[in-house]
């Protein structure tokens, strides 16, 4: 079954980039415009998205 993504509808006030949800917009603003990288609590490595941090945790720390 093919599920179509919602149309892009939320714009960033800082750079006009568009997002499909407020969650993605909030993550974008936090990381790109506020400079807050996400830090791994186990090793201290920093990442620019929740997805990258989750991938790191699953691979390096075996899902911690």
Automatic annotation (TrEMBL):
<keyword id="KW-0479">Metal-binding</keyword>
<keyword id="KW-0863">Zinc-finger</keyword>
<dbReference type="InterPro" id="IPR036236">
    <property type="entry name" value="Znf_C2H2_sf"/>
</dbReference>
<dbReference type="Pfam" id="PF16622">
    <property type="entry name" value="zf-C2H2_11"/>
</dbReference>
<protein>
    <submittedName>
        <fullName>Uncharacterized protein</fullName>
    </submittedName>
</protein>
<keyword id="KW-0805">Transcription regulation</keyword>
<keyword id="KW-0862">Zinc</keyword>
<dbReference type="GO" id="GO:0003677">
    <property type="term" value="F:DNA binding"/>
</dbReference>
<dbReference type="Pfam" id="PF00096">
    <property type="entry name" value="zf-C2H2"/>
</dbReference>
<dbReference type="GO" id="GO:0005634">
    <property type="term" value="C:nucleus"/>
</dbReference>
<dbReference type="InterPro" id="IPR041697">
    <property type="entry name" value="Znf-C2H2_11"/>
</dbReference>
<keyword id="KW-0677">Repeat</keyword>
<keyword id="KW-0804">Transcription</keyword>
<keyword id="KW-0238">DNA-binding</keyword>
<dbReference type="GO" id="GO:0008270">
    <property type="term" value="F:zinc ion binding"/>
</dbReference>
<keyword id="KW-0539">Nucleus</keyword>
<dbReference type="InterPro" id="IPR013087">
    <property type="entry name" value="Znf_C2H2_type"/>
</dbReference>
């Amino acid at each position: 079954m093919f599920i179509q993504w919602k149309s892009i509808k939320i714009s960033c006030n800082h750079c006009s980039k568009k997002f499909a949800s407020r969650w993605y917009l909030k993550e974008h603003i936090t990381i790109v415009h506020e400079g807050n990288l996400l830090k791994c609590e186990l090793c201290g490595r920093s990442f620019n998205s929740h997805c990258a941090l989750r991938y790191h945790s699953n691979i390096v720390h075996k899902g911690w």
